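Chapter review: from sequence to fold.
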Amino acid sequence: MLDKQFGVRNTLAAAALPALLMLAGCGDFFARQPTEIQSMAILEELGQVRESPHVNNTLPEIYRQPPSRLAIKDGTKLFYYTKHHPAGQLAALVKEQLGVDASVNAATNQLVLFCKDNQEADSVEHYLLYLDVPPVQVNVDCLILERFGDITMDWESSIMIQNFLGEEITMGEGRGTFNKQGQLTNLDPAFPGAAIRETERAKFGMDFGYWQNKGVPGHQIRAVVDVLISHGYLKILLNPTLETVNGQKATVTIKDFAPTQKVELGRGSDIEVYNITEYIWVENTLTVTPYVYSDGSIGLTTDIKIGSRSKPEGVVQRAIITERSIKVAENRVLPGESLIIGGMRKSEKRSVIRGVPFFKDLPLVGLLFSSKDFEEKGTEIIYILTPSISSGGQEHSGVVEDIRDKHATPKYETSIKQVLTEPFDSSIYGTMVEQQAAQAELDRLQAELNREEAITRAQTEKGRADRIAAEAEKLREKTDALTAQAQAAADEAAAAEAQAAAERQRVQELQQLRDEVQAQKQEDPGQGESETPRDNATPPDDGPDAPKGLEPDES
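The token string follows.
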């Protein structure tokens, strides 16, 4: 017996030992805190609103340079980086107004204009100076309000009498459904109300009436009146805001893939009615084109389309697809004013009475011989547009901070009562860990942002230094070329000066020689004629006009 008990104990110990080892080695598997902390940390990281590290990047300096020119064989090419308008638009205007061909580099928003000479290039550059100016940006705040109300009321009646007045006369028996024993199980309305236009109406309402000899075949009397009243309303408020430049369209579109019910009738032997679900796109679209005028007014060309599937319609308040649209060619609005371009109102009433002549007009009893279907609905749509000159964008850090405030979880302080009553509440620990993880993530993001900004500044400074060095090298080469040109000009000037000095020396020698000849002529006219030098005078001539031979040499 003892051996048997000892064997059982050994068996239990052998079975318990692996279980204990498994629990000891897999203790983390049953721990909940690491999983909760990890999931909260991931959700917190993914739910953070981060600032973009690229908002402070500057535009490359080459885009800020003034227009440059390149001399070609047939003229001059003018390279122009556009400042405020698309290159294609400016190219079309230059071609239309000045007749100058232009190519567009869309990647750099640059114009390459082909001019005949520098004079035409000056004219084109002057034209672009007046044309490429900052456009006016317009902000359009749009309020669209749609209101809809609907009320329906109807009653329908049914009556069946077997063996009317003790004779084999029946009333309304053909609308009844009987079982094999002849007992009435269902009675269709003799005078239907809204169920004629909406079959689902038969499933609503409350029946009240009278039933005599129930379950007695051939002597049953059944009178039923079904009354239903329905109220419904719908309010839609859209407040889109658009910003665009003067003369350009701005469009906002909101689309929903809405399900709708469609009634189908069976084919062949199956003629039952059944519903199927179809999906239809429902769009809300606002298109605005503003035009700013010099008097401060703003013209608006507007196209608004509002689609909805939530409008309650009919007795069962079924949602239907509706579309409201309005188009306005242009309206003028002064600053600070709003324009109401809608205000469409529509009211509808309908009422139908069905019944048996004479009997339907009897007091009280007439309800059993008649029915009524009444509906009243109204709708109104208001469009309010408020245009204004836009102030441009907002500071990125401020916008991000605003979004963080809206996205943040509301803060709360744990009271002493909660700590005492719930000392083991894991939410306190989880909130603390979550806040620490969020702060650590914010610090990491801030460090990354600072590093990106430092790298960007270093790259910008390096690029600027490289551009300055390149410009200095160009200036040095240009200075060397100018120095060489100046030296050549100086050499040419020195040579010209030497040649001029030689010419002056020769003129002086000729002048001196002429003076000597004149002096000799005055002393001895005859001798002067015979001794005239042959190199600087004409050959001797007999006659009183001989001294005139010096004139050609003097000239």
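Two observations follow directly from the output. The longest strand covers residues 137-161. Residues 426-523 form the longest helix (98 residues).
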